[in-house]
From TrEMBL:
It comes from Muricoccus roseus. Transmembrane segments: none annotated. Keywords: Transferase. This is Glycosyl transferases group 1. Pfam families: Glyco_trans_1_4. GO terms for molecular function: transferase activity. SUPFAM superfamilies: UDP-Glycosyltransferase/glycogen phosphorylase.
Amino acid sequence: MFQRPQHLLTRAAETYRVLFIEEPMHRPAEAGLPRMELRDTPDGVQVATPILPAGLDEARSDAAQRALIDDLLEGPQGAEPIAVAWYYTPMALSFSGHLQPQVTVYDCMDELSAFRGASPGLRLLERRLMQRSDLVFTGGRSLYEAKRGLHPHAHLFASGVDAAHFAPARNLGDACQEPADQAGLPRPRLGWFGVVDERMDLELLRSVAERRPDWTFVMLGPVVKIDPASLPRPANIHWLGFKSHDELPQYLASWDVGFMPFALNESTRYISPTKTPEYLAAGVPVVSTPITDVVRDWGEDGLAAIASNADEVIAGAEAAMIQPRSAWLAKADMRLARISWDSVWARMKALIGQAAARDLADGAQNRAMSSSTAAPHV
């Protein structure tokens, strides 16, 4: 998936050396474990994946990851200095809390403690991470409102968009060679791309598909944390699996509506889906369930239809399919122009610079105070 972390950290790689530590993979005991596997992305990010022997408890897993990171950062002159430690999960603090970066950033994308299978210790680790962070960024307005009272330097950075990546979908139309697994599917098409997990309202999807058997539902993305057998299987729902970021414009080019059937539960209470502006950048109108940030950021401006049940989804999709394109596309483009990932990163980078300057100033002040209280020379 190419989402917020990838958009931001590939841009960070233009200025910094970026090392991204992934969650560990576990393998049966074999020679050479634990070890760190490294790969470089085309965008200049180095990705490190800890490979650990299966069966380690939490303490030994943390110790192994801590040692692997230390080995990775060890250079000819000793441990390399870290300009920024950038966290996406507080759980990483358990094996990286000994590092001493100049600036610590917590980019809070979701309320992870509300997700299925979340660690019981996540809330405590988040409090610790907030205490040591110089900056807290939040991925949506609801998250910002929940976190801003917990940190003096909390900032709202809702989803950006790489409009240029999705814009070709507006012009491909019927002239493009469609992906083989979508070619021939009847129109109109309602599409989704993203992770399929407990945040999706599968019963709503089933109900809409059964009421409109003449519509085709194209569902792209990996199935995670739920049983694939639980997916609704009417003949007009097509589960096409994971597609790369580069492939998405070809699929979206012939979609009539972007459908976001999010469930309304604890795991979706604070989400701000990155796909909302991406659908619009591709020229695809949006119908979404009433996720708070979608309603406030897109629905109230008329850039997304909000639907609470199957009847409302059908009515919203029908209206979206017949509305004149030029007016709403012009309105969407004005909004999209203000939220590019380039501009989001530029503002984040400026705040990191300010935090680094504060750190240097605080260090100079502490040294001056220490010097003034030292015993005089005789």
